[in-house]
Design goal:
- The protein is mainly α and 70 residues long.
- The protein has one domain.
- Helices cover 94% and strands 0% of the residues.
Length: 70
């Protein structure tokens, strides 16, 4: 075990630290992109729901108007 520790240099540790930081940076960007895509999707669903509610209200009004005439 002591032989393994003696073979690790400061440069090796620095290289490993930079490698891990680079990987965490990609992980952070990936998570940010996923949350952004999710937020856009949710906003699109809310917009679609509002539009459908307006269309249903319009259709109900047209149906009531037509039934009132008959």
């Amino acid at each position: 075990m002591y032989l393994l520790l003696a073979q690790i240099t400061v440069e090796d540790l620095e290289r490993e630290k930079l490698f891990l930081q680079h990987n965490y940076q990609f992980l952070t960007f990936g998570l940010m992109a996923a949350w952004l895509i999710l937020a856009i999707f949710v906003l699109m669903m809310f917009s679609r729901e509002r539009r459908l509610k307006r269309e249903i209200a319009s259709l109900k009004a047209m149906l009531e108007e037509k039934s009132a005439k008959a």
